[in-house]
Design brief:
This protein has 9 helices and 7 strands. With about 270 residues, the protein is of the alpha/beta class. The protein has a 7-stranded parallel β-sheet with strand order 3-2-1-4-5-6-7, sandwiched between helices. Strand 5, helix 6 and strand 6 form a beta-alpha-beta unit.
Amino acid sequence: MNYLESVFGLKGKVVVITGGTGVIGSEIAKAFNQAEANVILLGRNTEALNKIISELQNNQSTVLGFTCDVLNKVNLEETNNNVLKQFGRIDVLVNAAGGHVPGAVIGVGQSVFDMQIDDFNKVNELNLGGTVLPTLVFGKAMAAQNSGSVINISSMASQRAITRAFGYSTAKAAVEIFTKWMAMEMALKFSNQIRVNAIAPGFLISNQNRELLTNLDGSYTERGHRIIEMTPFKRFGKPEELSGVMLWLASNASSFVTGTVIPIDGGFSSFSGV
């Protein structure tokens, strides 16, 4: 094995991905599968899980799926026990579960005072609770084995005030401080070979935001144009463009990196608009 293989090699690593049926989760699963890691997908939709698994089972590494709710501790612990029973360890956890809740989005012609507080609580529970709880469950294996990498998903909505996305923004901002706090906790109390980081994707077109960003003919809406104006790359990102940083954060190539939030945004976070 040469140096690059020893540093970057993910072959045989055990990678758990929550939100495995989503746009980001499924794309990340493809990348780890191509790197010949053993991929364990978690999702609430069994049919969608099976579809993705069938697409990935062309490699020599194992691909498994578990129907699991990231807000259900019993579900998570059962899945954790099954993974450990088969593989004996967990090397990487990617917390890709999350998303918007419509009632926590400020609608056109509305103000923050029209927001539904129950939906605000739901979006925070989904994104923050759905990151914290899996980390507490699967992170125990990393603490026991003194190694591992946790990768969370933040958003540009956490770093800059973006109109309408109030609930989602507060949830992802909380994910960022949890990332930094957990990085400190794991390094100081368990091992400096356990790392916790996050990525902050810029604007990708997905099923959740397609109607906000594009018209039926594929042209950009007014909101879509405003985002492009604030993005130096002058385009939206693609889900597969997250994979390189993900693989880096999972590998020994980032062995001195923890507590970071890495933008993958085409320059959106660095541009003042002037």
